[in-house]
Amino acid sequence: MRVLVTGATGRLGRVAVPRLRDEGFTLRAVSRRSRTGDGVDWVAADLATGAGLAEAVAGVDAVLHLASSPNRRTHDIDVLGTRRLAVAAGHAGVRHLVFVSIVGVDRVPLGYYRHKLAAEQVVAAGPVPWSVLRATQFPQFLEGLLGGASRLGPVIGDRAVLAQPVDPAEVADRLAVLLLAGPSNRVEDFGGPEVLRFDEAARAWLAARRVRRPLLPIRIPGRLGRELRAGGLTTTATPTGARTWADHLADTYGGTGGR
Ligand SMILES: NC(=O)c1ccc[n+]([C@@H]2O[C@H](COP(=O)([O-])OP(=O)(O)OC[C@H]3O[C@@H](n4cnc5c(N)ncnc54)[C@H](OP(=O)(O)O)[C@@H]3O)[C@@H](O)[C@H]2O)c1
């Protein structure tokens, strides 16, 4: 199967590309910059303008759409860019568009999530038969949040917020299964093996990095806080990934990571 991967240089794309390639998919990978290597055919394309998209989708069977821009021009890139991609893929006769979204986009009131939900709707309304997989947070994302939360010294956060980190390599394996299954519309969410409170995740992170910092509890107000504490970012769907937060910390920092 010939598959175009957008977002191939991102956190998920970097692990998905070698895994899919090794499973026998013939890959074309998109970046805004021209690149070579990784045993795939790279094309330059920009979702914000549509430049290069027609060439990128020509002759592929499926598109795995991982590109996203959470912090800049999100509407342009995630919503309108997804539409540009879907239209180009429709013209090219692509038979399957697989889109990766996030657990909680319909529940947790964050601006980025509103754009992801809108992009899901663009995919569903578009001309190409589709699948949408919502995944929970990648551990690297959780680490980024913890890094931001401890910039001033103590780890500042709402202790009762729930997270369910999932290894991007396991998400990539799930995506390979979806590509082979063909268009399936919205499929079961995919989360990590355990739901952690923010304070548990923070303590394990500090211990793995051998850093002593106090936790400074705050309460995230309003509906955002309520949804985050009520598990808006988590899923009860099965199967889940197997790799835990402790596994990630042990791989990243050595030691047992609290296992
Ligand atoms: N991070 C998480 O915890 C998480 C959890 C669940 C689901 N997801 C979803 O999984 C997907 C991948 O996330 P990620 O964390 O791997 O993303 P990431 O590391 O932020 O990578 C973003 C990718 O988007 C591409 N991109 C950005 N703007 C673009 C544009 N204008 N045109 C074309 N490509 C553009 C970038 O490619 P170049 O810079 O090479 O152009 C890059 O490869 C996203 O859809 C995200 O919403 C993420």
From TrEMBL:
For this protein, the record's SUPFAM superfamilies field holds:
NAD(P)-binding Rossmann-fold domains (SSF51735)
Tell me which InterPro entries the record gives: ComplexI_NDUFA9_subunit (IPR051207), NAD(P)-bd_dom (IPR016040), NAD(P)-bd_dom_sf (IPR036291)
Residues of the NAD(P)-binding domain = 7-138
Report the GO molecular function annotations: protein-containing complex binding
Coiled-coil ranges per the record?
Answer: none
Which Gene3D superfamilies does this entry report, sorted A to Z? Answer: NAD(P)-binding Rossmann-like Domain (3.40.50.720)
Q: Which domain of life is it from?
A: Bacteria
Q: What is the recorded name of this protein?
A: Nucleoside-diphosphate-sugar epimerase
